[in-house]
Amino acid sequence: MKTLIIGIGGMTNGGKSTLSKALQKRLPNSCIISQDTFFKDDSLVPVDSHGFKQYDLLSALHMDRMMEEVETWQDDPRAFKVSHNGVVQLLSEGVDQVYVLIIEGFLIFNYRPLNELMNKKYFLQIPYETCKQRRSSRVYTPPDPPGYFDGHVWPMYLKNRKEMEEMVTDLVLLDGLTERDKLLSSVLEDVTADIEAFSDRDDGNLPA
Ligand SMILES: Nc1ncnc2c1ncn2[C@@H]1O[C@H](COP(=O)(O)OP(=O)(O)O)[C@@H](O)[C@H]1O
Ligand SMILES: O=C(O)c1ccc[n+]([C@@H]2O[C@H](COP(=O)([O-])O)[C@@H](O)[C@H]2O)c1
Predict the structure, then answer these.
(1) pLDDT at 94
(2) 146 preceded by a cis bond (ω within 30 of 0)
(3) Strands ordered across the beta sheet of 98-105
(4) Where, by residue number, does the polypeptide cross the bilayer (predicted)?
């Protein structure tokens, strides 16, 4: 069975889940694993000296559980697909099916074990003002306290981004201000080309 793992990383509110959901709808036999679903319980997240909860760190996430979820997909992508969101689509007879996993989240490329599994890495970026504006209209659980964006989210983004750039060299940067449909079609075109190249090969490896 052939598999492809795509990472959709990026800044908070960069458009990761919007793009991932749209891609999943268009890619047969694809599933999404979202890092957001692995946040630790609020009681386990420490506060800093300014009283801000330290959510924008890898230590605020159950990354071990996220890896287990990815391994469950790797063990049997077909069963994972059936148990998570339904029907497996058979393409044409005689063609090897390629199962696609979309891993999305704001710190996926900062976690080396996850990073190493990905065949393709996309990173959605937006300017500070857009990020702050989009974030202000989103309600998290718990909600952002006053000053949280400038006091915690943005400084941690800068720190995490620097760390990511020291670890990862093969990122494809995407402009999160691009219109949704255009973003989708450019990534879809890229991924579809990989899938086609991949399904033509019989050694199970994605061409470089
Ligand atoms: N390409 C885009 N252009 C304009 N707004 C977008 C775009 N993609 C997403 N958004 C909006 O930005 C906000 C954050 O999007 P979301 O996909 O939830 O971001 P993330 O998963 O990166 O936090 C939402 O209000 C969404 O509708
Ligand atoms: O989902 C949660 O439990 C949660 C609780 C508190 C905060 N968050 C925020 O979720 C952000 C990452 O998710 P996202 O979708 O904005 O990239 C990160 O900036 C955190 O501050 C998320």
Answers:
(1) 52
(2) no
(3) 30-34, 98-105, 2-10, 120-125, 171-175
(4) none
Torsion angle (degrees, nearest 10) of CA 123, 118, 42, 131:
0
Q: Which of 56, 18, 40, 38 is nearest to 134 (CA)?
A: 18
For ligand 1, atom 16, which residue shows the shortest CA distance?
15
As a whole number of angstroms, the distance between CA 174 and CA 122 comes to 7
Is the beta carbon of 21 within 6 A of some atom in ligand 1?
no
Q: Is 132 exposed, middle or buried (0-12, 13-18, 19+ CB in 10 A)?
A: middle
Q: Which residue has the higher pLDDT, 121 or 197?
A: 121
Q: Which ligand is nearest to the CA of 35?
A: 2
- Residue 200 scores a pLDDT above 90: no
Name the architecture of domain 2-200.
Answer: 3-Layer(aba) Sandwich (3.40)
Residue minimizing CA distance to atom 16 of ligand 2: 12
Provide the whole-model pTM.
0.94
Both structure tokens of 139: 């309600």
25 phi and psi, to 5 degrees? -65, -30
Number of residues that this document lists for the chain: 208
